[in-house]
Specification:
The protein has a domain at about 85-205: Glutathione S-transferase Yfyf (Class Pi), Chain A, domain 2. Helices cover about 55% and strands about 5% of the residues. It has 10 helices and 4 strands, in the order E-H-E-H-H-E-E-H-H-H-H-H-H-H. A 4-stranded mixed beta sheet has the order 2-1-3-4. Helix 1 (about 15-25) packs parallel to helix 4 and helix 1 (about 15-25) crosses helix 7 (about 165-180).
Length: about 240
């Protein structure tokens, strides 16, 4: 079947964590808001009644609607036999996916530390302070955890030889943080060889490589989650 993926059309954002799984798995989908516009997405979401998603991204499969990135990834993995079929491993991968969601919330809070609805320029001074703490303390905290997780099994991916949704997520995190904080990530590069190798292994998957080279992969920009503002970057 072909899924309908609904997400904001001009950014990678949280929707990219779902797109990467769909693309890597060769799973058919329509990026509906890119085809029909953000207004169509808002109408569709509002029309789903009391079980409507709180926010995009959400995935529609016939009469099933699944929202929240970690839940969508779990749904796709189960339906399409992606990753490990061991129950304990599946729960651990889902745990890591939820930890990714925690990190993404903190990434967004760097450039919106006071008011998520206000412009960056209205909270720039606070963002500079938040970015310093995030660079020094939080990036290593999260990356240490993911680097250790990659050492649990033999192979290029978290579960070993087979990729899963969390590998797509870690690829996106490395790529996004390199864009957002090029100086800081360059200074940390030698500390995370497994994450660097995972990034390269995901990028080398034929389906992912084709996606990254296509127009479907929207470039990082200062409207998305990972935003590069030079004043927020630093070696430490």
């Amino acid at each position: 079947m072909t899924y309908d993926l609904w997400y904001w059309p001009t950014i990678q954002g949280r929707g990219e964590f779902v797109r990467l799984v769909l693309e890597a798995g060769g799973i058919g989908y329509r990026d509906r808001a890119r085809d029909d516009g953000a207004e169509a997405m808002m109408r569709d979401m509002a029309g789903r009644g009391p079980r409507a998603p709180f926010a995009p991204p959400y995935l529609v499969a016939d009469d099933v609607t699944v929202a929240q990135v970690a839940d969508i990834v779990l749904f796709l993995q189960d339906r399409h036999g992606i990753g490990s079929q061991d129950a304990g491993m599946q729960y651990w991968l889902h745990q890591l996916q939820l930890t990714v969601a925690d990190l993404i919330a903190e990434v967004h809070a760097v450039h919106h530390p006071v008011d998520p609805m206000a412009w960056y320029r209205e909270q720039r001074d606070e963002a500079v302070r938040a970015a310093g703490q995030f660079r020094r303390k939080r990036i290593p905290k999260f990356l240490d955890h993911f680097e250790a997780a990659l050492g649990a099994e033999d192979g290029p991916f978290v579960a070993g030889a087979a990729w899963s949704g969390v590998d797509m997520a870690l690829f996106q995190i490395v790529a996004g943080l390199r864009y957002m904080f090029p100086r800081r990530m360059a200074a940390l590069a030698g500390d995370y060889p497994r994450l660097a190798a995972l990034h390269d292994a995901v990028a080398a998957l034929p389906a992912v490589a084709a996606y990254l080279a296509s127009e479907r992969r929207v470039a990082f920009n200062t409207d998305g989650i990972f935003r590069h503002y030079p004043e927020l970057d630093g070696d430490g």
